[in-house]
Design brief:
The structure is a single chain. The N and C termini lie far apart (56 Å). With 219 residues, the chain is α+β, with helices and mostly antiparallel strands. The chain is built from seven helices and twelve strands. The longest helix has 25 residues. The protein has two domains: 51 residues, no CATH class; 158 residues, Alpha-Beta Complex (tt1808, chain A), CATH 3.90.1570.10. A six-stranded mixed sheet has the order 3-6-7-8-9-10.
């Protein structure tokens, strides 16, 4: 019993354990039905996610969010295409995990995992790298539920980008837990999941610098 997660220990220690488990099962069955409904109504032209039994319809993003998202995608995709490293997705690729469904802002699958993807595929496995750009409506989920879910499902690397403060946090899996290995707005960011991908942090927030770095990556 000592190896069980604390939440399981707490339930088993309660005299109401069977009642709690029954109610949990009922709630999860209702959630399962709602998730089926989510798959039926999800639209290609609208960002939607299913998180802990709720359907999230995302509102339009601010320009600064869009530019940061685009800069990260251009840098990653250009590098990965040039070096045949794998597949990079942006915003509308659905990643179903055991309980929740996400559409990461940017994500990457290494070549060995992406080789069987098809052009008509609409659902994808947990990526090797996920990038989430914070907004007022998504910041809490990005830092809590998604963080825990990506960690639990073996996403090797997770970037959280704040477009207002122009900072990036880089988390890497270590012994099945995320370790913060970089946080800041200066210096260079070197990916663990994307081999040899190294860029100035400022290139993420400055489109002109993004283009200069792209030129360097293509040399």
């Amino acid at each position: 019993m000592s190896s069980l997660p604390q939440i399981q220990k707490d339930i088993l220690a309660s005299p109401h354990a069977y009642i709690v488990l029954q109610r949990l099962q009922e709630a999860l069955e209702k959630e399962k039905e709602l998730r089926k409904h989510f798959y039926e109504i999800i639209e290609e032209n609208r960002k939607m996610e299913f998180i802990n039994g709720e359907i999230y319809f995302h509102s339009p993003v601010k320009l600064k969010h869009n530019e940061v998202n685009g800069n990260v995608y251009k840098l990653l995709d250009t590098f990965c295409v040039e070096n045949a490293l794998g597949t990079v997705g942006i915003e509308k690729l659905l990643v179903p995990l055991s309980r929740n469904d996400y559409e990461p802002d940017v994500c990457f699958w290494k070549k060995s995992r992406a080789k069987d993807f098809t052009e008509d595929q609409m659902q994808f496995p947990a990526p090797d790298l996920v990038v989430e750009v914070l907004s007022k409506s998504t910041a809490t989920n990005d830092r809590t539920i998604k963080y825990e879910d990506y960690e639990a499902h073996g996403v090797k690397e997770y970037w959280i980008i704040d477009p207002t403060k122009q900072t990036i946090e880089q988390y890497v899996l270590s012994h099945k837990k995320y370790e913060l290995i970089f946080k800041g707005k200066d210096g260079n960011l070197e990916s663990i999941a994307v081999k040899n991908f190294k860029i100035p942090v400022k290139a993420i927030f400055d489109k002109r610098l993004t283009n200069k770095v792209l030129t360097e990556l293509l040399k």
